[in-house]
Amino acid sequence: MTDVVVIGGGPAGLMAAIAAREAGASVVLLEKGDKLGRKLAISGGGRCNVTNAKPIPELMQHVLGNPKFLYSSFHRFSNQDIIQFFERLGVRLKEEDRGRMFPVSDDARTVVRAVIRYMEQLGVKARLNTPVRRILAQDGRVTGVETGNREIVPAAACVLATGGASVPQTGSTGDGYRFAEALGHTVVPPYPTAVPLTSDHPRIRDRSLQGLSL
């Protein structure tokens, strides 16, 4: 039996697999697509804004809604920890306007390759083209997952890292909501936030406004 099975090979899934393996757990990562880190590779306009270097209190001032829920996360793994993590992997970073941190290469694939390489060095078993059908549980405890071809992957714990439903072409199709509801969790209906806007207007179609932030 595997200690931890991670569902989803995006940024969250990759980091969850790394963290679990560093803690000594045996880890299997299941990704339904044919590539890991697909959404990470297109983040930041293809440059990957890995974090922000500003002090935490200053960062919190720019979080809409309720920023307090982030404090516990940053206490465990801060923005400075993120910077040190990537530099330890050999990814040189640079600071741009308003504290935004990018790889010196200006290529998100630099980040993707470094994370996947480190995960493989740790011994995480990643399985591509392996969609998950459902999470198995008994007496309130996870016992494993069932894949799309009805294979059972026994596991003592499961990390659900399937992402939302904002970029379907990267594999984010909202599978996690269905898995969570099947286990008895309450899911608040999602609504779009940071998603592209589409239009047939000529100025949009010719991409003359591409790169502008509003």
From TrEMBL:
InterPro entries tied to this protein: BaiN-like (IPR004792), FAD/NAD-bd_sf (IPR036188), RsdA/BaiN/AoA(So)_Rossmann (IPR057661)
Region annotated Disordered, chain positions: 193-214
Location of the RsdA/BaiN/AoA(So)-like Rossmann fold-like domain: 3-190
Protein name: RsdA/BaiN/AoA(So)-like Rossmann fold-like domain-containing protein
Source species: Alicyclobacillus vulcanalis
